[in-house]
Amino acid sequence: MTEIVEETLCELRQTFKSGKTKSVAWRKTQLNALRQLVKDNEEKVFEALYQDLGKHPIESYRDEVGVVVKTINHTLSNLDKWVAPTKGKLPLLFFPTRGEVLPEPLGVVLIFASWNFPISLALDPVIGAIAAGNAVVLKPSDQAPACSSLIAKTIPQYMDPKAVRIIEGGPQICEKLLQHKWDKIFFTGSPQVGRVVMTAAAKHLTPVTLELGGKCPVILDSLSNPSDLKVAIKRIVSGKWGPCSGQACIGIDYMLVEEKLAPTVIELLKKTMKSFYTESPKDANCMARIVNKHHFQRVQNLLKDPLVEASIVHGGSLDEENLFIEPIILLDPPLDAAIMNEEIFGPLLPVITLKNIQESIEFINERPKPLTIYAFTKDENFKKKILSETSSGSVTFNDVLIQFLCDDLPFGGVGSSGFGRYHGKFSFDTFSHEKAVLRAGFFPELEARYPPWNNFKMTFIKLAYDLDYFGLFLLLVGLKRF
Amino acid sequence: MAAKVGFDGEAAAALAKELRASFASSKTRSYEWRVSQLNGLLKLTTDHEAEIVDALNSDLSKPEFESLIYEICMVKSSCKLAIKQLKSWMKPKKAKPSMTTFPSSAKIVSEPLGVVLVISAWNYPFLLSLDPVVGAIAAGNAVVLKPSELAPATSSLLAKLLGKYMDSSSVRVVEGAVAETSALLEQKWDKICYTGNARVGRIVMASAAKHLTPVLLELGGKSPVVVDSGINLQVASRRIIVGKWGCNNGQACISPDYIITTKDFASKLVDAMKSELDSFYGKNPLQSKDLSRIVNYNHYARLTNLLDEDKVSGKVIHGGERDTSNLRIAPTILLDVPQDSLMMQEEIFGPLLPIIAVDKIEDSFDLINSGTKPLAAYLFTNSQKLKDQFVRNISAGGMVINDTTIHLAVPSLPFGGVGESGMGAYHGKFSFEAFSHKKAVVCRGFLGDASLRYPPYTEGKLSVLKALVGGDSIVDIIRSLF
Fold first, then answer.
1. What family is it from (chain A) (predicted)?
2. DSSP states of B199-252 as a string?
3. Chain A to chain B, count of Cβ pairs less than 8 Å apart?
4. ipTM above 0.85, yes or no
């Protein structure tokens, strides 16, 4: 096992050293090949996602295949712009020196993918790494084995195996990978494992991007227009159970609503869920299942607390054999229960009632910073307060999940939800080193720069720092004291 | 001598708690607070110039010129730039929303991270303490500064002045050494900025990993200078000399560490350098007031050790004089020091300048790339081809062609390392960004809800989804609707 890692790393370093991955033409070829891979294997991808997570093809296209295609298209359209140096403005004093920031690849990067979006969360970072000119090792999640297998089989058929490699496996191989020096590690997963990754990276001073999770709240303010409320509920339902049955980092974790609205909201939730998933969600085939027994039991355990169980107001059916948990709504489970302290990552929606919706800000601030905050409100002041008084990776008003699709927005966490970001150009930047380059000429020569020091030189440089060109002029023509 | 009351784990925890409460009160977020603090820094730097120069003289025998130009003026410039630009830096930036979420608006909002820890270095103890603090405050954070104990006069002065001029509810100085730094590192911070060496950089990052704290590591490395033939030797020599010995006598992270030139050119370069060294520092450089001393006996012994190694003796072609009682070593040039000598294996950080002579100037690239990525790399040449090759093939934090170290003074360029020389960057706007979280914000209304988002999932929905997400043309999207 050690040999695979060492051999792979050695070969990829050689490839990177040869300069091959730096060529923009090579990068474009790889991205085009990846796009072809996804198009050619769409059905196989749907099958693998169904096998690993029970995802419907629409969910699979929307959250996985479509995301990858969109990212490749966006990257190919913009790559020439991104690789170009950015001019740095220099003060006149520096003339004719020119400055620029030149993005360059970091080298050989390691990407850890998670199991819940095993295609898009594996390939999206790979796209960024390749766009930036790196060689890549991707470690897909072993908890989505069909997808891992499919990626391991197809990538070598389409992409350059000397520069892009897949290493499959579980915790043991992860440990081996982390012992080595990489030029960057990109990790998507839980905070606990994030700590392990960063600690290992520290030994080699490897920069990391950690895309973690957290408890993403949805704040539901009172909406006077009933059709707005209907839309809000539809979006909330689709934001909770839509992406991988609640097993999503930016999925809604819990809801905050005023207690007087709770009954109406819960009724609407039930109604909407029925129209989406029918009375028997398990048979409707529109919801993913729980990934495996371990996570099934983990989610099940959140409900074991009798006070939590007593707070269930809808659903509650769990099928361990088929790893299916029907959507469950809870009303005011105890705040010190595990369900309100750990990321649920499952189809359970606690609805927490507050006397006044403004209290939601304090509620959120008492807890670790989440990856996203959702808020449904038309109150502009409330929106301002949420933005300025809470901290999260991102904030979305009046909708769910869409920040993920926007290539112009950085996607990443803050605090325990992670650090670093990607998507769009941010992916390119995250896998690049921005090298400052200053090009000077041999003339003019500023004598004041050189020892031996004296008052004239001191005055000259002080004026230079202030960009006091007039003062400099006076000094040089002898009209200024020094 | 009475033992100092130690700043221990308890004290560190209490400090962090206090500053967190202060940050939570939102005081540091206001524009007015930030500007008032930046003005405070500007005032303390301006009004106490003489004391600062004295402290730097005590700690490093730093020439007044260097203290004023490289420490005081640079801090003042940083403050002034931040004050001038802060409004524009704080403004949210509009982003392009995704077509698929029409109608929506998107923006990126900068917010402070919270409470940040700045650990400074001893060689530019004033600048490297306050420059990051300027960035942290501009970004709206509360700050704890831990100056280097190896520059005790400056550390003490910083504690006194910041205590007097800054808002002590949110800006604090902790003096001390390893024990105090360790106590601080046990705490959870929202960002840690460390300037120093790679060994301690690893310790800082490993401590940060426990709390998932992002880090900015400004480290060092062996910054090479490649000197081609056919250039203006006098100008090149002067620029190398002032970048090496004119910057704290070689004790600077971006000091030229060693020179690579061709065998044919070496003697001409050496002659030019000897001549310029004489005119800068005179025949008795050990007595020159224009050179810093070595900071302390440990570093003096480290440097004399490098000089006294068997492999290296006999390679000194200029200088080599020492004054142990005054901790001074004269500007020393060596020729053809072996690659496996200590001097060529670690960052010199002192007044010793080895020159490596190669057959062809292009051989310098392999030599540089055989080591770890440095913080800076310099090239003196008139050949456009060599410039392009250098920029393309050498990876370093920053590069300067035909000069040395001046990129430090250009705030429009990011200043930071890559690989062993560090991660992250600052200066100018990059300082503001280094201490900010860029929060993505998406706003939607309640109109424009497409039923295709919601279950139940049908074939028809799949084809429209593909057209939308795949970024197809309007025509294709319309076609898919039928």
1. Belongs to the aldehyde dehydrogenase family.
2. HHHHHHHHHHHHTT--EEEE-----EEEE-SSS-HHHHHHHHHHHHTTTGGG-S
3. 297
4. yes
